[in-house]
Design brief:
It is elongated, with a radius of gyration of 40 Å. The protein is an alpha+beta fold and 397 residues long. The strands form 2 sheets. Strands 1, 2, 3, 4, 5, 6, 7, 8 and 9 form a 9-stranded mixed β-sheet that branches. The chain has a two-stranded antiparallel ribbon with strand order 10-11. The chain has 10 helices and 11 strands. 39% of the residues lie in helices and 22% in strands. The protein has 2 domains: 251 residues, no CATH class; 94 residues, no CATH class.
Length: 397
Amino acid sequence: MTIEILSKDDLIQLKRTDKKTLFKEKSSKIKFTDGLVHGVLKPSKVGSSSKEVKSKAADPHQSLADKDTLDVKIVCNTAWLCDSHMDVLTDTCYDKSISMKGITIPHIADHNQSSTAHVGDVTRIYTAKIAIDLLGKVSEENKHITALVMESTVRKDYNADVYKFYKNGKINQHSIGLKYEELSLAIDSSDEEDKEEKAVWDEAFPNVLNKELVKERGYFWLVKEIDIIENSCVLFGANSLTPTLEVKAATRATPPISTKVGITMDLEQALAKNLELTSEVAALKADKALSYTKGASEEQARVLGILKSAETLGLNQEVALKRIAAKSSVEDSTSMFTDIAEAIQKAVPVITDTATITSTINKETVPKEEESFIKGFETAMSSLDKAEDGRASWGSL
């Protein structure tokens, strides 16, 4: 079944009886936008989406130094023009592929999708606004058209014939290989059963450039998102507004700088990227230094806090150092010190500090009923000694 040649009535009938199959048939295979030519092209100028800039069209009499490479600027596809497949691509349908694939979308010839089919190295791909009256009279209403533009360095060693024909201004049509990601059927119908398709028609038809063709057929496919497989130079394209905008001697003496898969940069871009990365590294170093300073400050506060807590509760510095080496917090250490101090006070009310405890133990003057506590305390301190591998150096405090 060839959907593109169906009449409006046949299409409506198929849609009503088996809509699922209709959409499956439309979107199941890769589309090559080659077919009929809709108009004659004129020398063209191109403008970026932010400002208008002039660009030389391909000129067969142009003198180009034969350096075996040419920089070309070409239109791969144009939005809102109904092509021979009855497809109308929106001006945002290219965005996802540009974002995801970028310059990895290949520049080849005649949709020959093989590993050796490249004709050039793609350096940029983007959408831009082009003055439509410079491309061909397909609309009296629209002044500009959104185009998918590719910039590529065509190489003689890749394909000598393609290089020769670009150089002599003989290639003026291009075509993308694509897969449909999101599309809707638009039908000019007043039937209640076609109200969904009529809503699509009413919304999109005002943007269509070649309205007469669409009116005659009574339907079109609105393509909202595509997966761009490749861009080819061809003899004829289904979308005739796909010329070569510019051909000039390559300005690049060496291959582009490659940083990672899908991204290439010229020298100016590489320098800018280097500056950006240098700034990022400096910022990371500053953050690391700040984190280190903050960490050192917090550690100093912990050490001093534990020492102060031990001193306040009448315990010697050795007990504090053990808690410091054990990485205990000020709060946990203070809680422990409080329990020790309270236990000492309860067991030996007349003894107020650990120095006196030590002296009393040495003189064997501790009452018998207090011996069990002292032994327990000594055991606890001995356990702490065994748990420590060594003490930290506090000379820097």
